Amino acid sequence: MFVRRSAAVLAATAVIGTAFAPAALADESPSPSPSLTLPSGLYGSTDPTYDGVWRQSLALLAQHIVDVRPAAKAVDWLTGQQCANGGFAAYRADPAAKCDAKTQIDTNSTGAALQALTALDTDDTRTADATAAAVKWLKSVQNEDGGWGYLPGGASDTNSTSVVIGALEAADTDTEDLRSKDDRTPYDALLGLALPCGEDGGKSGGAFAFQPDKKGKLAANADATAAGVLGSLGEGLVTDPEDDGQSATPPTECAGGDSPTPEQAAANGAAYLVGAVAESGHLESALAGAEDQPDYGNTADTVVALAAAGRPADAGKPLAWLEKNSGSWAAESGPAAYAQLIFAAHATGTDPRDFGGADLVKQLGATGPAAESTAKDGQDTKDDKSKESEESEDDGGVSVWWIVGVGLVGGIGIGFLLSGRNKKQQP
């Protein structure tokens, strides 16, 4: 989904709460330092400081929806990252050390982990306890306006609020009746971040903003809009394809005026996204200095959002663009990128094992520990492809100009988490 940022700038982000990613920093994937030893249960080979929990959660969730049972140590690594209060930080190098005031627990990492662990639905008591604790923590840090910011107490933003809605819904929490001390629901917060229908002569009407600027003005943001569509519909990172093949009738105009319902806001946001990808088939990066570059992660999020909004036909163009062009980006970006593409394929009923000729499931699996098994064609077979045996393979073969991290502020992008966003979190 949605909060994505270049890992190179996340350290500063964690301190000052921004979502800016300078172009110079966005060109490089974070690599492990010579002294950094990555946990054997972790997906990905780059520095996990700012996206470890996010990319792990997306990887586990993506494997689940394609009937692959992830390695037990991969699940154990994720549950081991949880703090005693139920929240998750982007990454804890020493899980044995207690979380303290300096541990930056965030809603995006916690929401992603909750979605993944809930989906796995293991019989492990530890997993059940982890999900219950995560739900409790997320509820405890709901803002008075009904939404959530990236860090507890931070101003609510569309991306974080949507990630949390999806996580709580996955855990069977009624978010429509989840009220803050001011009697506001998460949907009230999202509606407050949706641009009115007549905004910018109608060009930006229906879009979502990430947050209001210092003057309280809302600016349309495609990344936030993809998140807002899913959040307004109560959907999470994964959206199942339409069972009956029927699509919603696309609205001919922005609905609801200045007071849309959540469903109308979702439809309006979807219409905005259709226009955003109409010409090129993809979204453009919002990062300073990279405006003419495609945004792969948020384009994948757009496909999921359009499918969730009942517009799979409109998702066809960006999906086709991803099938043709996303290989190098995913190979360079790692597990969260593969997961986002699998989510996009799944939402549209596309085979992720033949995505533009690429086997996304195999490519994702190669970035982490060997899976326990895979259920395909009614048979359980041992997955003999491990991270160690395949990490030297380069399916893309081409260097990518940037990486989007996940977690703390966006997932590969943060898709949902560390997405290349050109916005600032207000205090």
UniProtKB/TrEMBL annotation:
<feature type="compositionally biased region" description="Basic and acidic residues">
    <location>
        <begin position="374"/>
        <end position="389"/>
    </location>
</feature>
<dbReference type="InterPro" id="IPR008930">
    <property type="entry name" value="Terpenoid_cyclase/PrenylTrfase"/>
</dbReference>
<keyword id="KW-1133">Transmembrane helix</keyword>
<dbReference type="InterPro" id="IPR001330">
    <property type="entry name" value="Prenyltrans"/>
</dbReference>
<keyword id="KW-0677">Repeat</keyword>
<feature type="signal peptide">
    <location>
        <begin position="1"/>
        <end position="26"/>
    </location>
</feature>
<feature type="region of interest" description="Disordered">
    <location>
        <begin position="234"/>
        <end position="265"/>
    </location>
</feature>
<keyword id="KW-0472">Membrane</keyword>
<feature type="region of interest" description="Disordered">
    <location>
        <begin position="366"/>
        <end position="396"/>
    </location>
</feature>
<protein>
    <submittedName>
        <fullName>Terpene cyclase/mutase family protein</fullName>
    </submittedName>
</protein>
<feature type="transmembrane region" description="Helical">
    <location>
        <begin position="399"/>
        <end position="418"/>
    </location>
</feature>
<keyword id="KW-0732">Signal</keyword>
<dbReference type="Pfam" id="PF00432">
    <property type="entry name" value="Prenyltrans"/>
</dbReference>
<keyword id="KW-0812">Transmembrane</keyword>
<dbReference type="GO" id="GO:0003824">
    <property type="term" value="F:catalytic activity"/>
</dbReference>
<feature type="domain" description="Prenyltransferase alpha-alpha toroid">
    <location>
        <begin position="56"/>
        <end position="171"/>
    </location>
</feature>
